[in-house]
């Protein structure tokens, strides 16, 4: 099942909230994981693993460092579904 950009953003916001307590409505495409949301590498790893499971995609370790913003992650997950 392919998820829309909005569904991926909403799902990621839920995962980020579960891991960090950050309110889902704060999570937006332009937000930086580290600068705006203050997510550390350990939390990011958990979010990535949970996102892989939720969206049935594989996010290679070497790609994770390229996911600087929520939008980067949403775009990667959306394209990885195809």
Name the features.
82 residues, Non-ribosomal Peptide Synthetase Peptidyl Carrier Protein, Chain A, mainly alpha, 56% helix
CATH homologous superfamily identity: ACP-like
Q: Structural class of the helix and strand makeup?
A: mainly alpha
Fraction in beta strands? under 5%
Taken in chain order, the helices and strands follow as HHHH
CATH architecture: Orthogonal Bundle
Helical fraction = 55-70%
Describe this structure in words.
Helix 1 packs across helix 2 (41-55) and helix 1 (5-20) packs across helix 4 (70-80). Helices cover 56% and strands 0% of the residues. It has one domain: Non-ribosomal Peptide Synthetase Peptidyl Carrier Protein, Chain A, CATH 1.10.1200. The N and C termini lie close together (10 Å). The chain has 4 helices and no strands. The radius of gyration is 11 Å and the shape is globular. It has helices at residues 5-20, 41-55, 61-64, 70-80.
